Amino acid sequence: YVIASHLVQYMAQEDVRTRWKLKRDTISLATAKRWMGKLGYRWTFQPSGQFVNGHERTDVVNYW
Description:
single chain, alpha+beta
């Protein structure tokens, strides 16, 4: 599972900030959640507070 706060922590690493030319120390939790939503992750309640990739949805599977 992927947790939005882990994305925030990852983006706060010095080498990542340098690679992506970020001017701030990190991204906000709200930004991490928004990025994950745009990447197709969806919020689930089991386990609480984590995202699950939606690539196995029937509409996505039928598309390919």
